[in-house]
């Protein structure tokens, strides 16, 4: 008789914005996530001002986490141009830092990129106009291609696993509803949804939109979750992190 495959519990949160003054603040949080889940996803804006000193505090706090951690950087993590040092510090602590990379943990495949802006659907910016505008659009294209490459490797090397995407910027407009429409182009891009659908991803997680909407889906039904910490705390029933069984 075939045994049922054990469900993998994936906890996800973004925009934790760790500060230099946060020593001791996150220990219980990471202990709780370790008890509730098998894998923890951190969806960008790991630091508040993009300082390596903030990442040092986070690395120390993460010692309380006893489950694998997968993370991508967010726009805040780039603010002081110390993103590579932040990435290195967290990787040395055992965090699986993804930037066009993939990893399989607990029988689930994870692919991650930061993503970028550019707008959604018919309002998505095109590769047209001034060089600076083209550069902006090219960044979104490059992030989408990195995501597709990581998902493609998962598909080829581990065809048996379900695929989950870890992002900071939103791939659909539905999960940023609640934010001012004027800033939609800076919160995400539909270009990120294309690889999700092409590679038949089970679910995607992102942050960045603090006043967005928890759940949505791409046109082809890929589930998308906005797990920005400020949003999770403002739900009718606040939660410390979102947990999905895979």
From TrEMBL:
<keyword id="KW-0479">Metal-binding</keyword>
<dbReference type="GO" id="GO:0008758">
    <property type="term" value="F:UDP-2,3-diacylglucosamine hydrolase activity"/>
</dbReference>
<dbReference type="Pfam" id="PF00149">
    <property type="entry name" value="Metallophos"/>
</dbReference>
<dbReference type="GO" id="GO:0016020">
    <property type="term" value="C:membrane"/>
</dbReference>
<dbReference type="InterPro" id="IPR004843">
    <property type="entry name" value="Calcineurin-like_PHP"/>
</dbReference>
<dbReference type="GO" id="GO:0046872">
    <property type="term" value="F:metal ion binding"/>
</dbReference>
<keyword id="KW-0378">Hydrolase</keyword>
<feature type="domain" description="Calcineurin-like phosphoesterase">
    <location>
        <begin position="9"/>
        <end position="211"/>
    </location>
</feature>
<protein>
    <submittedName>
        <fullName>Metallophosphoesterase</fullName>
    </submittedName>
</protein>
<dbReference type="GO" id="GO:0009245">
    <property type="term" value="P:lipid A biosynthetic process"/>
</dbReference>
<dbReference type="InterPro" id="IPR051158">
    <property type="entry name" value="Metallophosphoesterase_sf"/>
</dbReference>
<dbReference type="InterPro" id="IPR029052">
    <property type="entry name" value="Metallo-depent_PP-like"/>
</dbReference>
<dbReference type="InterPro" id="IPR016538">
    <property type="entry name" value="UCP008292"/>
</dbReference>
């Amino acid at each position: 008789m075939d045994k049922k495959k054990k469900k993998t519990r994936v906890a996800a949160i973004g925009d934790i914005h760790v500060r230099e003054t946060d020593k001791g603040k996150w220990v219980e949080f990471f202990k709780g996530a370790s008890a509730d889940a098998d894998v923890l996803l951190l969806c960008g804006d790991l630091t508040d001002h993009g300082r390596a000193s903030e990442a040092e505090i986070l690395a120390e706090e993460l010692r309380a986490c006893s489950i694998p951690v997968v993370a991508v950087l967010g726009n805040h993590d780039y603010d002081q141009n110390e993103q590579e040092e932040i990435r290195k510090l967290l990787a040395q602590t055992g965090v699986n830092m993804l930037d066009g990379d993939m990893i399989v943990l607990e029988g689930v495949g994870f692919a991650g990129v930061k993503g970028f802006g550019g707008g959604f659907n018919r309002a998505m910016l095109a590769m047209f106009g001034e060089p600076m505008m083209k550069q902006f659009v090219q960044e979104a294209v490059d992030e989408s291609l990195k995501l597709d490459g990581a998902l493609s490797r998962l598909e080829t090397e581990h065809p048996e696993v379900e695929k989950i995407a870890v992002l900071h910027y939103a791939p659909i407009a539905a999960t940023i509803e609640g934010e001012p429409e004027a800033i939609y182009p800076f919160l995400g891009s539909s270009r990120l949804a294309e690889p999700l659908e092409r590679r038949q991803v089970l679910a995607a997680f992102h942050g960045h939109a603090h006043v967005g909407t928890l759940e949505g889906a791409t046109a082809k039904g890929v589930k998308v979750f906005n797990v920005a910490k400020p949003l999770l705390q403002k739900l009718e029933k606040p939660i410390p992190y979102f947990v999905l069984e895979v």
